[in-house]
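JOB MANIFEST
job_type = single_chain_structure
chain_count = 1
residues = 218
[input]
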Amino acid sequence: MRLLKIDMHVHTLYSPDCRTGLEEILEAMDKKGLDMVAVLDHNTIEGGLKLREMAPGRVIVGEEIRTSEGEVAGLFIEETIPPGLSPEETVERIKSQGGLVYITHPFDPFRREVLRREALYRIEPLIDAIEGFNARNLLKRSNRKALRFAAERSIPVGAGSDAHTRFEIGRGYVLIEPFQGPQDFLIKLKSARIGGRKVSPLFNLFTKLYKTAKGVGR
């Protein structure tokens, strides 16, 4: 059976700290051999919806949502979830849409938007998947801690590039069996393989400079 190669964490120009156009993403997907991407723009699903219109069957619509205690991501959602809610309320809104609760870069000490540890443990029973490899994590041990956290709790593991530029797309991915809908995706994710390579810290610096130039405060 042919496995699907999916980058589960990509940003578009609809994120305030990214300027990658939708056509650029599709070109990068073809170049990198990606079957699908999950679009996790900050606090909006507009980019994911538009990209899905352009490439039906190749896009998982999601959102990286800034809660009152750090970021929680939703996969397979159809309505934008507003920022600033509690982690519990955010999780409830993801699940009310039939979406999956996905915790991105949970142990990266250099990101101020990481979900606070106490909040992570509070919502732990409701977590559907953990990002076990994020290509932008500066320290290898951040990914290792995420993998260990997931393994100890039998939580499925995802992987993504966290791409904020076209060059990063595909640097983190899962190889997964074809699936039908979010619950089947979650089942198949349990046996998926993750892969990827860390990107240069310069990409993080580029994003910080871009945010500063735009006066962005997420």
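[summary]
The radius of gyration is 15 Å.
Residues 140-153 form the longest helix (14 residues).
exit_status = 0
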